[in-house]
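Reader question, answered in our methods column.
A reader sent in the components of a multi-part assembly and asked whether the whole thing could be modeled at once rather than chain by chain. We filled in our standard form and ran it. Here is what they sent:
COMPLEX SIZE: two components
ENTRIES:
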Amino acid sequence: MSDEQPTQQMPPDPPPHTPQPPRPPLKRSTSDSVIAGVAGGLGRHLNVDPLAIRITFVILTFAGGLGILAYLACLVFVPSDDPAAPPMRWGLARIVGAGLLVLAAIVVLTPDWIAGPWLTILLAAGVVTYLLVRVVRENGASHISGVAARIAIGVVLLALAVGGFTAAAAGSALGGGIAIAGLVIACGIGLVGGAFRGGSRWLIAPAIVLALPLAAVAATDLDVRGTWGDRTFRPADVAELGDGYEMGVGSMSVDLRDLELPPGRTDLPLELGVGEIQVLVPDDMCVTTDAEISLGAIDAGQGEEGGVDVDLHDRRTPDPGVAYVHLDVDLGVGHLSVGDRFFDWERGPDWSGDDRFEQINPGTSRAACEAAA
Amino acid sequence: MRPRPGFDPASLVAGVILIALGALLLLDQADVIELTFAYMLPAVLAALGGIFLACGLAGPPRGE
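And here is the structure of the entire assembly that came back:
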């Protein structure tokens, strides 16, 4: 053992603190720009060669278009380093625009998504949340009068917009679609012409108020010209069927229980703009159904199918010689049901309301489509 | 995008988009084409998005 004490080694002095230069803020570059300076700005912020970022964007573009979406997002949300860039209060328009473009991409990539209510719910929730946060942030929760004034103005503007939308939708559905489309084009021409005279952006609002309801009417193929109300049709023979039945808005009930069918196929076209179609058939009648519904649901006994652009094409072919009715239904917005009995069966099979049916139980006999052995 | 005096790029972009959308609607109403939700919804969303984006990128109109 040695009495020699181990020499204490002092830790080396830390290197003198050299402050790191502050990282440049994330802004789109105007000096290193190929398209909009996104990669240049990212490279400057991350201290990475912008070429590597550009290559990354290109590679991601082949991954389902992710690179384009990411670039667009940066273009919208990352400000420019140009001191003369537009003030940020126009950022709302950029955010809304980018959000709508992303929604359009989602709808194209996942069309089934629009069948549910999620799109409307998300849009409404987003707008309401944004407006509430903005009002509270700008005025403070204590400025109740300011908040109330903004809400009142918002309600008035909303009422004006709803009124304009309703009028345009009614005009479109009543056959004025061509004129309204012409007005939208005229607004567009006015905007293009006004662009070289300082701008005419005020034309955008009326054009949108005209175009949106017309687009909805066009997508639903809505035509409400014709009879309005509740009608029940009870043909007794094929001659009474004529060219089928057509209504604008309302409830169309077709009772085929007294119909005498000739052998083979009997076509029955049914057309309704908005409302409900119910077809009641005797339980020994063979029925096939082709239906197109722009927005709504179909239930012909194989389970309800609903959403937008709902098509039902009956592939079944009855046996030769069997008398059957082929329904050809064109419904804009509403519900179609085909069945051979009422839900309220306790009242008896012959019961029906004065003006229209109560709900019928969808489904018809398949055995009726088979020839007797 | 810095607008030149007297020229409003947002109006130009919005005008072109509305002319295209109006033409699409006109063709549908004239029964030349038949639009469904699957086509119309993304078209309308893209048109609105394009208009808003153009206005946002162009900044305030002249005189504001």
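What stands out: Chain B has a mean pLDDT of 82. Helices of chain B lie at 9-29, 37-58.
Send us your own complexes using the same form.
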